[in-house]
Amino acid sequence: xxxxxxxxxxxxxxxxxxxxxxxxxxxxxxxxxxxxxxxxxxxxxxxxxxxxxxxxxxxxxxxxxxxxxxxxxxxxxxxxxxxxxxxxxxxxxxxxxxxxxxxxxxxxxxxxxxxxxxxxxxxxxxxxxxxxxxxxxxxxxxxxxxxxxxxxxxxxxxxxxxxxxxxxxxxxxxxxxxxxxxxxxxxxxxxxxxxxxxxxxxxxxxxxxxxxxxxxxxxxxxxxxxxxxxxxxxxxxxxxxxxxxxxxxxxxxxxxxxxxxxxxxxxxxx
Amino acid sequence: xxxxxxxxxxxxxxxxxxxxxxxxxxxxxxxxxxxxxxxxxxxxxxxxxxxxxxxxxxxxxxxxxxxxxxxxxxxxxxxxxxxxxxxxxxxxxxxxxxxxxxxxxxxxxxxxxxxxxxxxxxxxxxxxxxxxxxxxxxxxxxxxxxxxxxxxxxxxxxxxxxxxxxxxxxxxxxxxxxxxxxxxxxxxxxxxxxxxxxxxxxxxxxxxxxxxxxxxxxxxxxxxxxxxxxxxxxxxxxxxxxxxxxxxxxxxxxxxxxxxx
Lengths: 270, 261
Description:
The complex is a heterodimer. Chain A contains 10 helices and no strands. Chain A has helices at residues 2-47, 58-67, 69-103, 105-120, 123-134, 138-161, 166-174, 179-216, 222-231, 235-263. Chain A is flat. In chain B, 36% of the residues lie in helices and 25% in strands. Chain B is built from 8 helices and 10 strands. Chain B has helices at residues 2-5, 51-59, 99-109, 114-127, 143-156, 173-190, 201-207, 241-256; strands spanning 9-20, 23-35, 40-44, 66-71, 74-75, 83-86, 161-165, 193-198, 210-215, 220-226. The chains are: A mainly alpha, B alpha/beta. Chain A binds chain B through residues 1, 4-5, 7-8, 12, 165, 167-168, 170-171, 173-177, 181, 185-186, 189, 192, 264-268, and chain B through 56, 59-61, 79-81, 83-85, 87-89, 91-92, 94-97, 105-106, 109-110, 129, 132-133, 137-142, 144-145, 157, 178.
């Protein structure tokens, strides 16, 4: 037994060290590739003297980002707000709805097809209607974000809630647990890793949703900034906004992943 | 006082018939036997002989189509805290709970206060020699250690009966043997009534006071064999002539049916 236990801990330590090393390698690799591509871009643009309104060099994009930094920050905050609000709304509605669907076959048969139909509609086509119905403020963008986010969350939550192994179900039955106890202590924790899969997919859509909303009609936000600056041939600024959108999306994704680590410490890491 | 004189568990003429698309399948047919208090009973047989079904009937997860199961004189109606269950697969532990949290679970459902249940859980973990791993999550434990946690969890709320459904089947041969003796040591301390399902004949003889040999299609008891090996059991007993004769008897019954045995 003592041998078994010490092997257990050793394996754990080894694994952790290996994981750290491979993560470091991955980060270095990704950074080097990115730097290389940006340098190549810069070189090619200079070599072939591509006009800046067509394809600006990275250095020029950086310059215009510095020049317009206060506007960029302002519009970023607008987009971030719409994204987070829509995302939160999607979670607040999807998770309880998934619970309802799991517990009610009737809802499963009635609501699910409607949700699928909603999901199949192109959001770009719905966005103008939303503008027509609820105007040009933040709300229509929040609704678009909600629309692109809710589906992955509800699908992941539903499959998670039904993924309880039979032995766990039998066990909890043998302990005479109530429905509520079964839900709180078994079903929901089982679903957690699944829910986070949905949340991670949804967050990458969220920023896109906000930009779609802003494209259709708005007076601020990074999507609006891109639209305005391209129409005025300020391509470097459009690229600057694009860079910020990408960064925002990546940061949000890793924020969700970090929350997952804290909330689901038992999930296998990859 | 009469209660002490009667068998702890009585299985009376129990049958279970499944309705499947291809017709009615008899999983267990007219099974009858008694189990004394503190007895270690093994049910052995090839896959499909209904041994796990029988265990699930005793656990109350399934309801017999016919017949009755009584525990301490009371007819079994569903599941209850008088029976602790250990399953085969590792998925039976809660991945989101530490070893300690897993063992606490049954006590929590029983409504025992936190300091008290942690106290009991720690003692149970010590019993299965895992006190150092109280705060490890299942995915950091080996298969053998996970099954130890499952055993500690089943014993924690002090059920009178321990039901084990091939608990060591997914383990490697050596761990399996080690855990078998470990289980006997634990059983020796608290003398619970144990029903242990396995398809491994050697394991059954090594552990049991009596072995129930079952044959498939329909699941029936072919024979019940008393194992008169001394306790504590040792690994050397496996090579004794008595052990071999038990093993031959069981094999004969299982492979050639009750009629020729």
